[in-house]
Amino acid sequence: MLKDTKVLEKLIEVAGISENETVYEAGTGEGTLTTELCKRAKSVVSFEVDHDLFKKSSRLISAFPNLKLINADVFTFPVCVFDVFISNLPYSRSRDALQWLALQKFTRAILTVQKEFADKLQARPGDENYRSITVLTQHCFIIELLFHVPKGSFDPHPSVESTVIRLVPKEPGTPITRATIKNLNLLFSSRNRKLFSVLKKHNCKIDFAGTKRIDELLPTQLLSLAESI
Predict the structure, then answer these.
(1) pLDDT at residue 139 in the model
(2) Nearest-CA neighbor of 38 among 53, 54, 23, 55?
(3) Which of 73, 118, 130, 135 is deepest in the core (most CB within 10 A)?
(4) How remote is the C-alpha of 116 from its chain's centroid?
(5) Cβ atoms 126, 104 nearer than 8 A
(6) Coil, helix or strand for 62?
(7) Is the per-residue pLDDT at 205 higher than 70?
(8) DSSP per position, 165-216
(9) 60 SS3 class
């Protein structure tokens, strides 16, 4: 749980919530951040999968009529219209969050992630950290690393460093589909193989230099490949 009030204040500041916006919050927890969101937003839809935490945070409903609490996984629940996404999820769900956001329409997202994961999102072709989630995120969003969160800001203290990032969707192009995301992950399961052998395996007919490896291609090239499978 995030306990540092200064970090919470900074999260609210960088989110820049206005009174006409709807916020999706993934991970209500004990409702500390939720409370501040409700004071600023037109409406807040907050998701908490843990039943005990959901019951504990339900006390907020009477105080904030603009709050809707849902005891469910945000990534499997039917989506409503929202403007801002804020997440303080377990770091094991960071990949799920970005893959889900790639399919949504919104103005910005503020996420607290593991520092190593944030670094991965900025990797370049050929880097060791260059992964399918790197390609998807760079294709869909403008990525900003906002600030570092000390381990002592959480209770209990995590064993990893944390970073708050902001994602802003790029100008709409060809919509990303679940099938494209699935195929992108499939391509990266052969990330160290030569391109020509991967294309042959998946029966792709597309004109790229076959001497490169999958992890040496640009995001635009990899998305074209994923869409062609």
Answers:
(1) 94
(2) 23
(3) 135
(4) 14
(5) no
(6) helix
(7) no
(8) EEEEEPSP-SPP-HHHHHHHHHHHTTTTSBHHHHHHHHT------TTSBGGG
(9) helix
Of 4-18, 58-72, 194-208, the range with the lowest mean pLDDT is 194-208
- Dist CA 75 CA 60 (whole Å): 23
- Contact assessment for residue 89 and residue 162, using Cβ atoms and an 8 Å cutoff: no
Interatomic CA distance for residues 44 and 35, integer angstroms? 10
Residue 24 token pair: 């999706």
Q: What does DSSP assign to residue 152?
A: G
Question: What pLDDT sits at residue 206?
Answer: 62
Kindly write down the DSSP assignment for every residue of 77-98, as one continuous string.
SPP---SEEEE---GGGHHHHH
- Give me the residue label for tokens 């607290």: 112
Question: Tokens standing for 116?
Answer: 């190593």
Residues 120 and 126: their CA atoms lie apart, in Å, by 12
At position 104, the amino acid (one-letter code) is Q
Gap between the Cα atoms of 83 and 223, Å rounded: 26
Q: Which residue in the block uniquely carries the two structure tokens 């970090």?
A: 7
